[in-house]
Structures are given as C-alpha cells and as structure tokens.
Amino acid sequence: MDEKQGQYKVRDLKLADAGRRQIEWAESRMPVLMKLRETYSKTKPLAGYKIAGCLHVTKETAVLIETLRAAGAEISWSGCNPLSTNDEVAAALAANGVQIYAWYGLNVEEFYWCIDRTLDFKPNLTLDDGADLIFTVHNKYPELAEDIIGGTEETTTGVHRLRAMADDGKLVYPVIAVNDAETKWDFDNVYGTGQSTLDGVIRATSVMLAGKNLVVAGYGHCGKGVAMRAKGMGANVIITEIKATAALKATLEGMQVMTMDEAAKVGDIFITATGIKDVLVGRHFDSMKDGAIICNTGHYDCEINIPELEDRMATKRTIRANCEEYTVSGNRRIYLLAQGRLVNLAAAEGHPSEVMDMSFANQFMSQVRLVMAHKGEEVLERNKVYDIPVTQDQEIASVKLATMGLNIDKLTEAQYTYSMDYAAGT
Ligand code: ARJ
Fold it and tell me: Contact 105/338 with Cβ under 8 angstroms?
C-alpha cells in the first residue's frame, strides 16, 4: 500500500503509468466530457470550490475527476464499492496530485475510513454514487454541511434514498438527481448495464450464454438492458418481477415471466437487478440445479442473501477470480460471482466509456449548476432533490450525436405550427 497523509492511499503508485494509458483510452471515447473540459478549463467556474466524491474509481471516473479539476475544482475522492476500484487508475490519479483514498478489495471499515479522509478537507460539494458520502456527512459530520452548497447523485438506489430523506425533512442541502436525466438512465442503466453485466459474468465464468436459462430479477431499466442483451446472445431469458406492468412488458418483449420460486428450479444463471434485498434466499438455493451461477448487478450486495447460502454450505472454494463454488445439500454446486457485489464493476470494468460519457457530462454540468446557484444564478432550497433541466438532456444528446457524425432533421415552421395546433384534425 502506498500512502501519503492528507494526499492519498492507493495500492501501488508504480501502477500509475498503466493507469494513465487507460485514462487516455477512456478520454478518446468520451468526447462530450472532453468538450466540456475544453470549454470550462478556460472559464474555470469551479475555482475555489472543493468537491468530495464517492464513486467507483474507474478510468471513466478519472476523466470526470480531471475535468472537474480542469474547471478549477479541488478534489478528494473515494470509491463507492469495496470491489470496484481500478488500482492502476487510482495510482495515476494520486500521481497527478488528486487526493484519493481507494484500493480494490478494501473491507467495510476501510471503506468508511476512506470516506472520512475525503471529508478532511471540508468540501463545499459532494458527488455520490449510492449516497454513502452524503449519509456520512448527515449522520457523522453534520457540522460539515454548513459549508456544503449541494450535492449530486449518480444512481437509482441513491436517488431513492435521498428522495425518502427529503420527504422526511432530513436532507440539509440540495441534491441534483443525475440518475434521473434521460441521457443517464435511458442509456447508462439500459445499454451500459446490459453490456457490462454480461461482460462480468463472462469474465468470471467464461460460460456460453446461448441456450442457457438466464434469470433476470427485476425488469427496470437495468434488468431490461441485461435481458435484452442476453436474449441477443441466445439465452432463454426468464424475468421475475413484483410489478405487474413491468412483467407484462417483459412478456410482450418475448421473455418468460414467472416467480423466483419457479425460476429457481430451472435457471442456469441468475442475475439480480432490483435494488431490493433478499431476492435470492435460502429456499431458492435449496431448489437450484447443480451448477447454477448466481450474481448481482444492483448497487448493494444485499440482493442475494449470502448468509443463508453460507448456512447451507458444506464446502467452499475459489474456482477462479470472482467465482466461488459452494456445495450445498444433495452435492449440488452453486457458483457465487464477485461475492454478490455488483458483478459488472467487480468482475469487469463497469459500463463502457462511450455511455459513461453522457452520465458524467450530466454529473459535471450538475456540479457547475450548484456552483452557479451559489454565485446567485438560481435559488436552490436546502431540503430538496432536483431534476436536471430538460434542455441539458437535449444539449448532451445533440453533442453526442454530432461526435458520432450523425445528423437529425429539424421541424419546419409549418410543422412546428401543426404540432402546436390542437384544432387540426381530419
Ligand atoms: C464509473 C460506473 C461505471 C464506470 O453510472 C453507473 C451507476 O449508476 C452505478 C451504480 O453504482 C455504477 C455506475 N457505473 C457503471 N459503470 N461508474 N465508471 N465505468
């Protein structure tokens, strides 16, 4: 471990060169964010502001961090999951002067130690994925909130938690729900999760998906993305749901729908994507086939009840990286991937840069918005979760299309008038 007090704690600084090459690779696939970097490095709207971030330390996140810095911000950062830090990237960031506390495989105590260190410099803004940082401020260091002008939140699970907190009157500074931007959830959550989750399953197991009964728990944006891509690779996709409309949509997309009790008996591969705990529990493990593979792609590791799996195990051994074999009653083997933590970041590299480009453009714009509001451009109430403006979505999508060399049509004036005219009929 390499450590410098008040500056960084990472696995090994010697990995910095390898990390830098990965960051450059991501930069070349994140044109929207790089364009924002070019623009805002001239005006430096974030100068004088300190941002504490708690979000997976990946090559894409590094591009976000360095864009925030280019716009003038001072940064301190930790990962938001014990198994998602890319140690090479963390080293490159540390070598470049970013305050960073993150390494792959840290334990829960170390995880919170890292968050605490990012708060040592008394930030003015927070940037979360899963809301652990903002909760730490609220619960452990409430006095820090005085200097905090606002925060942003990356993911569905975090936004749910923060909206509940706002409803309870417990949120003490404004938060922008980056996840709820159309250019985030409708792309990152669907296509990003779809590709990266299967990437994680394949890297951890190398199994063929074609012909397998692949069970996806949850047909929200993430589950839908996973199901769609798995189907495209020839898997027999089974969906389990608690929401009637979502289940109905899955059926009409050609997926099978059944309860988890039924699916547990026939599934070869199980992927949870619900954001809810106890989706796979003891009775499911009791009825699974020999060789079943189970994993989770939701934010927290509570979707698979691992204690109930451990209760049943006779033996346990590691087969390969991120693949643990449990033998249970009847000499059946169940394979748990990435310790039930999000398989797409723990066993693979998270979503591809191309899609994180839009998510992080939204993150960047939202941090700038909080600062501009602080400078008097807009009034943001302290106990409120805000959506991103619709114009921001259209702007980001337009720039993304342009960087892909794609053009779209414009309404003519007559078409616009028609679109607004409620009287026109047959
Ligand atoms: C950083 C990533 C990556 C990646 O935006 C995604 C989200 O909502 C998460 C829930 O924790 C993970 C986050 N995500 C996915 N892929 N963050 N770099 N490459």
Answer: no
